[in-house]
Write a structure and sequence with these properties.
The protein contains 11 helices and 12 strands. By secondary structure, it is of the alpha/beta class.
Length: about 375
């Protein structure tokens, strides 16, 4: 297996001078919560009681936490459940089964999350940064620049809010639960690596320490921060890795995904292959289909050759994404016949390929449309 690339920085600096979000229960492990509570002079089991309310019962009103004495409740809620984000607006599509929420964070930054209910599952698409610094020209989020990283708890709170909506029957289809989480909202998750991994651990920790989701139901997307992809393979969390490739050749990908000038197609795909090899989890290659830009038949052939050069043992799957329109963009979706031909050529190379079912485009809630604008 390849060695991790050396002498490559692992972090991207966010803008300086911003206050950090207040510490929240979801930022801490179970042991850290207990230590904090005992440090307040309270019994350690209060931390578990509070975790049960937040993660298991999905309570958002402290008055409902009646097993906590009033005096203790006020103190522990103030210490561990500060208000992190306020919903400003929720838009619905698909007869109410797709819901996009605009959130105002504690410092005024705006982010969006999307809840999508399907017949067999409910998926939360969450943001990991306010804005994004990757500057992909076809993505509305990328054109807005990066404001700041989100904390682990701010990421988790998006999922918990969706879980509450499902549990309370606010989404058509009756009461249910969130089963899947995709890090495909605003931001580059691996540029906020520590907080994202912390959030994934909270989401997958058994209740009441966390939300109790299956790691296999979590998809972590990246445009190709290669050192972080290698690091993820060592975390021991079997999430699905999704590499947003969008072009099989460096010349075009340099334009579509500027980080490619730092880590090439070959380096990004090899890191993805390493993740699949180490974890035995199939990697998803995300590929936004853009008319006359990256949808030529020869590029489908090249993509197939690049992926199968690492073997045909089922390590990879291509997920084609019909490009979603953004205001004023020159980029448009591929013609249906070109999309079908792209699929045919990839499958002829032995590469499993599907076309994503786009949800929420009419409320600017689909892939690449999240811009978090308050109007």
């Amino acid at each position: 297996m390849p060695d991790q690339p050396k002498n490559l920085p692992l972090v991207f600096d966010e803008p300086r001078g911003r206050k950090k979000p207040p510490r929240h229960l979801a930022d801490l492990s179970a042991d850290e919560r207990k230590a904090l509570v005992t440090g307040l002079g309270l019994p350690g089991f209060r931390a578990k009681q509070l975790s049960t309310h937040y993660f298991s019962r999905l309570v958002d009103d402290p008055a409902e936490m009646t097993d906590l004495p009033a005096a203790d409740r006020e103190q522990v809620v103030a210490a561990l459940l500060p208000e992190l984000m306020t919903p400003l607006r929720t838009l619905e599509a698909d007869k109410g089964t797709t819901r996009k929420t605009l959130w105002k964070l504690f410092d005024g930054a705006l982010v969006e999350s999307v809840l999508m209910r399907y017949p067999d599952r409910a998926t939360m698409c969450v943001s990991s940064q306010a804005g994004c610094g990757m500057a992909c020209p076809f993505c509305a989020t990328g054109q807005g620049g990066l404001q700041r990283n989100m904390s682990a708890a701010e990421i988790v709170e998006q999922v918990v809010a969706g879980a509450r909506s499902m549990a309370r029957g606010e989404v058509p289809g009756g009461p249910g639960r969130v089963s899947n989480v995709v890090f495909m909202g605003m931001g580059e998750p691996m540029a906020n690596y520590k907080a994202v991994i912390g959030a994934i651990r909270r989401l997958t920790d058994k209740t009441p320490d966390g939300l109790g989701l299956s790691a296999r139901g979590v998809t972590l997307s990246t445009v190709g921060l290669v050192p972080r992809m290698y690091q993820l393979a060592d975390e021991g969390i079997p999430v699905t890795l999704a590499l947003s490739l969008h072009a099989p050749d460096d010349e075009l990908r340099n334009e579509l995904v500027p980080i490619n000038t730092r880590w090439s197609v070959h380096e990004a795909v090899e890191a993805a292959w390493n993740y699949a090899s180490r974890t035995k989890r199939r990697v998803s290659i995300e590929y936004a289909m853009m008319c006359d830009i990256n949808d030529q038949g020869w590029r489908a052939d090249l993509l197939g050759d690049v992926l199968t050069s690492y073997g045909d043992w089922g390590w990879v799957h291509v997920n084609l994404i019909p490009l979603n329109p953004t205001p004023g963009s020159k980029w448009t979706a591929s013609r249906p016949e070109d999309e079908r031909e792209f699929v045919r050529r990839l499958e002829a190379k032995g590469v499993p390929t599907t076309v994503r079912d786009t949800r929420g485009s009419e409320i600017d809630g689909a892939c690449g449309q999240l811009a978090a604008v308050d109007v």
